Amino acid sequence: MASTPKAADVPQGYFAEDVSDEVVLARMAESMDPRLRHVMTAVVKHLHALVKEVEPTQQEWEQAISFLTETGHMCNEWRQEFILLSDILGVSMLVDAINNRKPSGATETTVLGPFHVSGAPRYPNGANICLDGKGEPLLVTGRVTNTDGQPIANALLDVWQANDEGFYDVQQKGVQPDMNLRGLFTTDADGRFWFRSVKPRFYAIPDDGPVGQLLGQLGRHPYRPAHIHFIVGADGYEPITTHLFTPDCPYLTSDAVFGVKETLIADFRPVDDPERATELGFTNPFVTVNWDFALARR
Ligand code: BEZ
Ligand code: FE
């Protein structure tokens, strides 16, 4: 744990530029929660070091405060601009990496994102989660296994994705049906799951707020490569929050939120098979992807 100065080490407790962080840290009570002390010590030290490095003008400091104020004002039930800020700075992926150091063999994780909705409909395997029939038909098949490749029965998959225009249902209320392209599936006795959907498209993260403006000023685009989100869990196993990425997306190597891992790029295959398309209730041609998720024991 970082050592913090005692009030007695700071002459009279008056503020001075050269000991600015120490003056602030010395005010923390001896009795405070140790984890909070550790966190706040790091926050104060790094924040003071940053300000000393940047030496902002008074006007630049005011701009920074306005940016944070606007970021707060942008937040509502569906919009979390602070998470978006964390995402574009790579902080969300760093927290995810720190908290998911798995034994090798477990499927890698990535960001949750702001578009997960709890209470998605529970479907039998084979169901079609595309409720408006729009998009290029996609068959998703696979298994959930442990890290030794043994199937896990009764694993739960929570799936959600954007449509082929790059929007989630919650972004197009009244345009897409509620709960479009979302569903919960359970693996069978052999650990298998399968469902029908449409091929997702790349999309821009919400960029009409201060975070979007910052991205523009940084010379960065707001796009995420096409993907399907999954939360996969089973009794006795660590749940994973992850994505499957399509291999042909132009934004794979420049994801606005740094969420791509090479191991999560799947083989989305075009299929030209009129008979199989009819069996599936698809137009021909269609797309398939087969993917196995591996979970680590708790
Ligand atoms: C998403 O994949 O849904 C997402 C992740 C981070 C920011 C915005 C969207
Ligand atoms: Fe997404």
The gist of it:
With 298 residues, this protein is an alpha+beta fold.
CATH fold field value of the largest domain: Protocatechuate 3,4-Dioxygenase, subunit A
Mean model confidence by pLDDT: 94
Give the distance, in angstroms, between the N- and C-terminal Cα atoms. 27 Å
Q: What share of the residues does DSSP label as strand, in percent? A: 15-25%
Structural class: alpha+beta
**What is bound: which ligands?**
benzoic acid, fe (iii) ion
Counted up, domains total: 2
Description of the molecule:
This protein has 298 residues and is an alpha+beta fold. The protein has two domains: 49 residues, no CATH class; 205 residues, Protocatechuate 3,4-Dioxygenase, subunit A (Sandwich), CATH 2.60.130. Helices cover 25% and strands 19% of the residues. It is built from seven helices and ten strands. The strands form three sheets. A four-stranded mixed β-sheet has the order 4-1-10-9, with no helix packed on it. A four-stranded antiparallel β-sheet has the order 3-2-7-8, with no helix packed on it. Strand 7 and strand 8 form a beta hairpin. The chain is elongated and about 85 Å long. It starts with 19 loop residues before the first helix and ends with a strand. The mean pLDDT is 94. The site of benzoic acid (BEZ) has 9 residues, from helix 4. The site of fe (iii) ion (FE) has 6 residues, from strand 7.
